[in-house]
Specification:
three-stranded antiparallel sheet, 5 helices
Length: 139
């Protein structure tokens, strides 16, 4: 589609490679290997696996109960989720962002598509835990 046609469209996402310096560092490392900037989904997977592996290292076991407990009690706090927490129903509570697609004249180069219009705090981005239909919460 390109910037020419998409300019002005808005979108909501949980991450974009240009959010901040930490996101840019991760994106550049990713780009060196894949010759493409990471998507929000790719960044989320990397963040989640890293959090999981750090929890195994911290607990000294890969036992499910110990690792899940550590993951839930430790903020994610990386390039993807600053201060993000895993809620009882398994949702990673992190901010989302409202983006607008740049005009071609606003983009400084390849992969630079969005400008950030607003941040949606995690507490507003997700429904309350009390309304969760997750069986883990409904016990």
């Amino acid at each position: 589609m390109g910037l020419k046609l998409a300019a002005g469209l808005t979108s909501v996402a949980g991450w974009y490679w240009e959010l901040d310096d930490a996101s840019k560092v991760f994106a550049r490392r990713f780009f060196e290997r894949h010759k493409a900037m990471p998507t929000a989904a790719q960044a989320a997977v990397y963040s989640g696996i890293t959090h999981y592996l750090k929890s195994i290292a911290a607990t000294g076991t890969d036992g499910t109960d110990a690792v899940i407990s550590k993951m839930r009690s430790t903020p994610v706090d990386d390039f993807f989720g600053k201060g993000a927490m895993i809620r009882e129903d398994g949702k990673l509570m992190h901010d989302f962002y409202v983006f607008e697609v740049k005009k071609p004249s606003e983009s400084k180069g390849p992969w630079e598509y969005y400008k950030i219009l607003a941040t949606v705090p995690a507490r507003e981005a997700y429904g309350p835990l009390s309304e969760s239909e997750c069986p883990l919460v409904k016990k």
